[in-house]
Amino acid sequence: KIAEFEAFFKEIPIEWIPQSQLSIPDVAETGATFIENAILKARHATTLSGLPAVADDSGLVVDALDGNPGVFSSRYAKNDAERIQKLLHELKNVPEKERNACYHSVLVLLEHENDPVPVICHGIWEGKITNEPRGKNGFGYDPIFYVPTHHKTAAELTTTEKNRISHRGQSMQQLLDLLNNDLDAPIE
Predict the structure, then answer these.
(1) What is the pTM of this model?
(2) Is residue 188 assigned to a domain?
(3) Do 152 and 103 contact (CB within 8 A), yes or no?
(4) How many Cα atoms sit within 13 Å of 63 on the Cβ side?
(5) Is residue 165 a contact partner of residue 175, using CB atoms and an 8 Å limit?
(6) Which one-letter DSSP state was computed for residue 70?
C-alpha cells in the first residue's frame, strides 16, 4: 500500500513511512465500522510515532449476506483463496440479480494523537459478486467482484483502470484534493 500511496501522492511533498518501519505493531481492529477501525489505526500510529498518520480500513459489503464480510473482510477466512471460496459458498443459492456488493475504503488522517477533527475520506465501489473467480490482477475479492461499467471483474482490470475507479482510488483522490487545497496545513 505504501508504493500505491507514494505513486498516487507523488506531487505532494510527504514521505510515507510504513508503521512497520517504525516498529509499531498492528492494533486490534475492534471497531464496528470501517471508519471506527481507520480511526483506531491512525490514532495508534500517531500515538506511538509522534507523527501525523494516515490509516486505511477497507472491505467488501455484500447485500445478500447482511453486509458481511464487512469489517471482517480480511479475517473472513485464512487467505484470499479461502475467503473467496467461503463467500461463493454462502452465495451459491443467491440469484445473480441479488448479488449486489460494494467495496468500501476509508482513509483517516490525524495530525497528532489528540487531533479532535480527523480527516475522513470514504470511497465506495459498487459491483456484483460473480459465480466463479476471473482474472489475475489485484488481490482479495477482486477475482469475484464484477464491475458492470467495465464488464470485467476487478482482477481483469489493469492497475491504471482500477486505481481510477476503485474504492481506494476514490478515497485517495479525496485525500489528495484536501491536501492540495490546504498545503499550508501543519502536516510535516
Answers:
(1) 0.91
(2) no
(3) no
(4) 13
(5) no
(6) G
pLDDT digits (tens, 9 = 90+) for 53-68: 999 999 999 999 999 9
pLDDT value, residue 119 = 97
- CATH number of the domain residue 119 falls in: 3.90.950.10
Mean pLDDT of 32-41: 98
26 is catalytic: no
Contacts for 4 with CB less than 8 Å, ≥ 6 apart: 163, 168, 172
Q: Cα separation of 175 and 109, whole Å?
A: 8
The single residue of 57, 63, 66, 80 carrying the catalytic annotation is 57
Q: Which residue, chain included where needed, has cell 518501519?
A: 21
Q: State how far the alpha carbon of 103 is from the alpha carbons of 10, 108, 161, 179, in Å.
A: 25, 17, 16, 24
- Number of structural domains the chain divides into: 1
Domain extent, residue 174, equals: 2-181
Query: Is residue 187 in some structural domain?
Result: no
Q: Which three cell numbers stand for residue 117?
A: 477533527
d(CA 35, CA 62): 18
Grid cell for residue 167: 474504492
Q: Which phi and psi angles does 20 have, rounded to 5°?
A: -65, -30
CA-closest candidate to residue 138, choices 108, 119, 163: 163
Count CB neighbours of 125 within 10 A: 22
Residue 65, C-alpha cell as written in the block: 449476506
Whether 45 maps to a domain, the answer reads yes
- 30 within a domain of the structure (yes/no): yes
